Amino acid sequence: MNVYLPGEGPGQKKRAGPVQEGGTLSSYMLAQLQLKYGFANLARYEAAMATVRELFESQGITLVAGTVTQVGPLYEAFNLWEIEDQGHLERALRSMTLGDPRALEAMGELNATVEHEQTRFLGSLAFAGSPNTA
After folding, report:
1. Sign of the C-alpha dihedral, residues 97, 49, 18, 1?
2. Which of 7, 51, 88, 102 could be cross-linked to 84 through a Cys-Cys bond (beta carbons 3.0 to 4.6 Å apart)?
3. Could you report the per-residue pLDDT of 74-132, keeping only the tens digit for each?
4. CB burial class (10 A; 0-12, 13-18, 19+) of residue 45?
5. Which stretches of the chain are DSSP H helices?
6. Half-sphere exposure of 64 (CA within 13 A, CB side)
7. What is the C-alpha separation between 128 and 12, in angstroms, rounded?
8. pLDDT for residue 16 is more than 70
9. Directed axis angle between helix 39-57 and helix 101-113, to 10°?
10. Is residue 67 pLDDT above 50, yes or no?
11. What residues contact 49, with CB distance under 8 A and at least 6 apart?
12. Which residues, other chains included, contact 114 with Cβ-Cβ below 8 Å and sequence gap of 6+?
């Protein structure tokens, strides 16, 4: 089944977006993290997250955006991950080898650089289009 968003149709380029094959809406996990203050901590966080991204993407969890605040509360990071459903993260963590030295090192770096983390599970809205084309 082909699903088209407004402005799309047969013969036009189909964009990835909130409506997946079969008409279901995409699901996302938003991680909001308050990092410890300073450029050095930000660099350590980014290095650790490169490993986390690789581990997550090996389980089908795709990073949509990774950002950090430039105005307002400084060193607040937001990571938006596309997931299958709310259970996807739990299934992925069970499948990963968290005893892997790279995973352990990344978790240690996150423990040293993150003060607080809050996660939210989000569903897309059809009117919004793709996050990459808005």
Report:
1. negative
2. 88
3. 999 999 999 999 999 999 988 887 788 999 999 999 999 999 999 999 998 888 766 55
4. buried
5. 39-57, 88-95, 101-113
6. 21
7. 19
8. no
9. 140
10. yes
11. 66, 79, 106, 110
12. 33, 34, 35, 36, 45
